[in-house]
């Protein structure tokens, strides 16, 4: 008993030390221009391609859900070949450019994992969403796992129960999950990811189904990569229209719509709240992004600061 409470105390101390090593001022002395350099890179990329905001936000999500926010998603091969990633994730070149700009100012100082976390926040801000303060000091992994990515990344075919389980496994509750799904207020999805919904689900607005079918034929293999906006109303603006749309059966992915129509009481109220109150969504989204960004970071002396984000040093 005494020894088990001693280990609890020890664990708490270790946790305190770990979190003390992440801080919002982490690079203030070692690389004072880091955050501005990242922001400039994001703003430039988003102004030439508005969808890039969505793509950078998703990169951070796919990073954090697989062995924590350690930039494993950026390593060539491995995770990048997982089902949900290959032929789908975008923005690697933008991150590479930002990293090279940051390296020019301060060598081997700012991790790729931190660049992803800041770039995700700046992307959201660039398209009209809320801001939040990012804790810094994550370090980069020297490994990535395709198998783990296939296991941990949620697929669009999942039920609400399975989605809840996946998010709970990362320490994220129902409100976090619904708020984070609101990231689908921006960005695009490929036909192969919503075809089944168009042709065999009933909880879909008929007009939306008809218009999406025009560029997403029923036959598997035809038009698989044709794109449609995840938020039909304001596809490139970060707002709460995604939630208003769910209430109208206008979610594009199965995993979007089930949060409202097949949730069995688990998440409908949260969606009602976000659909009727933009600030409530913004606040919950910012809070959930902070939580997601803190999933299992590598803290010094673990990990490394990669010189090039796509390969270990
Ligand atoms: C709830 C579970 C989730 C599932 C099943 C899911 C699934 C998907 C799928 C299938 C796509 C389209 C990919 C393609 O067709 O190439 C997509 C796009 C996207 N996802 Fe999610 N997602 C989920 C949660 C999230 C979260 C938590 C975030 C961020 C916080 C996010 C951000 C995005 C963004 C921004 C896009 C558009 C990317 C672009 O246009 O490049 N998603 N998601």
From TrEMBL:
Substrates-to-products reaction catalysed: 2 a phenolic donor + H2O2 = 2 a phenolic radical donor + 2 H2O
Lineage: Eukaryota, Viridiplantae, Streptophyta, Embryophyta, Tracheophyta
Source organism of the structure: Triticum aestivum
UniProt keyword annotation of Glycoprotein present: yes
Domain of life from the UniProt record: Eukaryota
Cystines in this chain: 31-106, 64-69, 112-309, 191-216
GO terms for MF: heme binding; lactoperoxidase activity; metal ion binding; peroxidase activity
Coiled-coil portions: none
Cofactor or coenzyme needed: Ca(2+); heme b
Protein name stated in the entry: Peroxidase
GO cellular component, one term: plant-type cell wall
Sequence positions that bind Ca(2+) 1: 63, 66, 68, 70, 72, 79
């Amino acid at each position: 008993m005494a020894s088990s409470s001693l280990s609890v105390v020890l664990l708490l101390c270790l946790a305190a030390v770990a979190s003390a090593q992440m801080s919002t001022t982490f690079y203030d002395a070692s690389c004072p221009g880091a955050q501005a350099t990242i922001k400039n890179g994001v703003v430039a990329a988003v102004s030439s391609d508005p969808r890039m905001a969505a793509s950078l936000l998703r990169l951070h999500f796919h990073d954090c859900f697989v062995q924590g926010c350690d930039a494993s998603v950026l390593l060539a091969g491995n995770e990048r070949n997982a089902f949900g990633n290959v032929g789908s994730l975008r923005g690697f070149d933008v991150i590479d450019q930002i990293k090279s700009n940051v390296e020019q100012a301060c060598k081997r100082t700012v991790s790729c994992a931190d660049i992803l976390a800041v770039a995700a926040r700046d992307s959201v801000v660039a398209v009209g969403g809320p801001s939040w303060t990012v804790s810094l000091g994550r370090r980069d992994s020297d490994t990535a796992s395709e198998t783990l990515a296939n296991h941990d990344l949620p697929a669009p075919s999942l039920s609400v129960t399975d989605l809840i389980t996946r998010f709970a496994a990362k320490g994220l509750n129902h409100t976090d999950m619904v708020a984070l799904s609101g990231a689908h207020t921006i960005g695009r999805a490929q036909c192969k990811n919503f075809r089944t919904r168009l042709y065999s689900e009933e909880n879909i607005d008929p007009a939306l189904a008809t218009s999406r079918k025009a560029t997403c034929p029923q036959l598997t293999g035809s038009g698989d990569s044709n794109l449609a906006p995840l938020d039909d109303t304001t596809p490139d603006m970060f707002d709460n229209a995604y939630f208003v749309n769910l209430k109208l059966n206008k979610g594009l992915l199965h995993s979007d719509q089930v949060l409202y129509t097949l949730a069995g009481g688990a998440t409908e109220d949260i969606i009602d709240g976000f659909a009727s109150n933009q600030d409530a969504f913004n606040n919950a989204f910012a809070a959930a992004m902070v939580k997601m960004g803190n999933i299992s970071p590598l803290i010094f002396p673990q990990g490394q600061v990669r010189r090039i984000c796509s390969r270990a040093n």
